[in-house]
């Protein structure tokens, strides 16, 4: 039996065959994935293993039954890692999960956020995932096993949204005792376009701060990574949303600055209904370069995977024979002929198994592929950003110490002081700030000459900036947008906001300003701005 130092977690992958083995104790179980499926496991279901090397079936059942079983694999992943940290903490203090007390949970919160002995402390906002995981797990365990629920909370419901009640102008929430003070204050950060391009060139394309490419750089996937980052910054989509797009779902780049596309319901956070979003022309051109059948890296990894027969060994592959862009349906090969399947109902994991037949063999419909030719997993994009940030930090060190004379301790200090870095969600924040600036300018122009009462009446009838921004970001309610972005945007000068725009976007705004000037600012007309609702038809 293998003895581990800590709790560990693995995730079922139903797309690959089980590993070959001659162990009779394993062979007697038959096909392990078939057996796991009969026991309620799905693709992405976690399996937590104790330091003894044995899994606790009661804990693992949490992800296979009840409300948690209906969640997406991304939620399972976050909660599984949160539970791993909690279980390791309990081992250190000498107790088990089914004997934990309220005091243990409070001690865990203190250790995660404030305990000086913990060198890996986290922000209060990050503890929200731990809090939600423990709250959901113990609500389930107390009902199923009669285990004492040590999580202090205002209710047993494991949904964060259930604690919200309508209030005047903003959403009001009853205080959750386990939620740290200030945890709702988001760490909103953004990048100017110039900063993003510098970070991309250094972190993803192998340049240094002097603008020269480093010797020996091998950027095999740089066209893919640059196109992905450009897409996050240009569309404002979440990583999960942009990472799940199929090649048939993207329009071709044309003459318009912003092209419309449809985001499938199952790829959206919450997954209730799909929505329209807008893609800048330069993003589509970048994606087309990556997907070019002759020169793009996507075609190269597909050809390599085909030669090695990698696609032929996958389990659960579904063959797509056609696509109807008007109805948003795929035609899937079946025993009784092609069957129509709406793109809206396909989750990110299901999309990974969609392939088409070509003269060279099977080919995935997923746009974003790993070096092995298989669809790139959503969470692996975090590694892409982490690796890029490390390259930028190393370039920062080379800039400060070109001759390599500093000690490693001094070099590490310089790495930590590097002021250029990025995360995937910062691209979404930057998108929000950019469109806040555009919408602010447009509202300022079209409301010139109106009295305060007329301005208020206009906003009541047609909505204010936050309503339009909520549509662009895919938020269900403008209060969500306000809650995330109002405080960090307050006080920013319009001149600074406009510096976020590139030349193409600035030209579009200038054109709109001229239109408003011609109308004298006294007549309210439909705003046909590229990239906003009502534009780019």
Features:
two-stranded antiparallel ribbon; 537 residues; single chain; five-stranded mixed β-sheet; globular
Question: How would you describe this protein?
Answer:
43% of the residues lie in helices and 9% in strands. It has helices spanning 24-27, 32-38, 57-61, 73-93, 102-113, 124-145, 193-203, 222-235, 239-243, 281-290, 297-307, 348-351, 380-400, 408-416, 424-446, 452-462, 465-473, 478-489, 494-498, 503-518; strands at residues 8-11, 46-49, 164-166, 171-173, 258-263, 275-280, 318-324, 329-332, 339-342, 354-358, 361-364. It contains 20 helices and eleven strands. The chain has 537 residues and is α+β, with helices and mostly antiparallel strands. The protein has a five-stranded mixed β-sheet with strand order 9-8-7-10-11, with no helix packed on it. The longest helix is centred in the last third of the chain and has 23 residues, at 424-446. A hairpin with a 4-residue loop joins strand 3 and strand 4 (171-173).
Describe the structure concisely for a colleague.
The chain is of the alpha+beta class and 537 residues long.
Structural class: alpha+beta
User: What is the CA-CA span between the terminal residues?
Assistant: 63 Å
Strand content: 5-15%
Q: What Rg is obtained from the alpha carbons, in whole angstroms?
A: 26 Å
Question: In this structure, how is the largest beta sheet organized?
Answer: 5 strands, mixed
What number is the mean pLDDT? 81
Please mark out the parts with pLDDT under 50 across 5 or more consecutive residues, or reply none. Answer: 154-175, 458-463, 515-537
Overall geometric form = globular
DSSP E strands, number: 11
Helix run count? 20
Strand order in space, largest sheet: 9-8-7-10-11
Secondary structure: helix percent: 40-55%
């Amino acid at each position: 039996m293998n003895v581990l130092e800590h709790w560990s977690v693995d995730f079922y992958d139903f797309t690959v065959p089980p590993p070959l083995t001659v162990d009779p104790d394993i062979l007697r179980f038959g096909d392990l994935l078939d057996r796991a499926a009969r026991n309620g496991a799905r693709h992405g279901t976690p399996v937590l293993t104790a330091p003894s090397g044995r899994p606790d079936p009661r804990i693992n059942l949490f992800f296979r039954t009840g409300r948690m079983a209906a969640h997406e694999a991304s939620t399972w992943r976050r909660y599984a890692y949160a539970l791993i940290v909690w279980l390791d903490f309990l081992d250190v203090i000498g107790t088990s999960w089914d004997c934990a007390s309220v005091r243990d949970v409070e001690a865990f919160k203190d250790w995660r956020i404030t305990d000086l002995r913990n060198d890996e402390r986290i922000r209060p906002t990050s503890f929200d995932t731990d809090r939600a995981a423990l709250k959901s797990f113990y609500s389930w365990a107390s009902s199923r096993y009669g285990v004492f629920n040590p999580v202090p909370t205002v209710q047993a419901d494991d949904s964060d949204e259930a604690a919200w009640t309508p209030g005047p102008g903003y959403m009001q929430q009853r205080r959750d005792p386990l939620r740290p003070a200030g945890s709702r204050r988001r760490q909103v950060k953004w990048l100017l376009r110039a900063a993003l391009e510098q970070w991309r060139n250094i972190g993803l394309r192998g340049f240094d701060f002097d603008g020269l490419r480093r010797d020996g750089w091998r950027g095999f996937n740089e066209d893919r990574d640059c196109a992905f980052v450009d897409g996050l910054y240009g569309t404002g989509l979440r990583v999960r949303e942009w990472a799940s797009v199929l090649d048939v779902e993207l329009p071709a780049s044309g003459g318009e600055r912003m092209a419309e596309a449809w985001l499938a319901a199952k790829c959206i956070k919450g997954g209730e209904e799909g929505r329209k979003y807008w893609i800048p022309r330069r993003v589509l051109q970048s994606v087309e370069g990556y997907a070019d059948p002759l020169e793009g890296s996507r075609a190269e990894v597909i050809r390599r995977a085909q030669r090695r027969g990698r696609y032929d060994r996958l389990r659960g592959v579904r063959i797509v024979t056609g696509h109807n862009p008007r109805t948003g349906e795929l035609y899937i090969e079946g025993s009784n002929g092609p069957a129509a399947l709406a793109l809206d109902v396909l989750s990110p994991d299901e999309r990974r198994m969609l392939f088409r037949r070509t003269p060279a063999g099977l080919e995935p419909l997923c746009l974003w592929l790993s070096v092995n030719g298989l669809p790139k997993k959503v969470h692996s994009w975090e590694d892409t950003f982490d690796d890029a940030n490390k390259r930028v930090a190393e370039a920062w060190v080379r800039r400060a110490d070109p001759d390599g004379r500093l000690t490693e301790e001094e070099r590490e200090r310089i790495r930590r002081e590097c002021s250029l870095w990025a995360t995937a969600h910062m691209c979404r924040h930057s998108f929000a700030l950019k469109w806040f600036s555009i919408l602010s300018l447009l509202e300022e122009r079209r409301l010139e000459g109106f009295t305060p009462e007329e301005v208020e009446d206009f906003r009541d009838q047609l909505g204010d900036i936050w309503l339009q921004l909520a549509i662009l970001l895919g938020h269900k309610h403008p209060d969500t947008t306000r809650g995330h972005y109002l405080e960090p945007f307050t006080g920013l000068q319009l001149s600074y906001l406009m510096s976020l725009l590139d030349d193409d976007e600035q030209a579009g705004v200038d054109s709109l300003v001229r239109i408003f000037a011609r109308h004298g600012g006294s007549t309210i007309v439909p705003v046909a701005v590229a990239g906003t609702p009502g534009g780019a038809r």
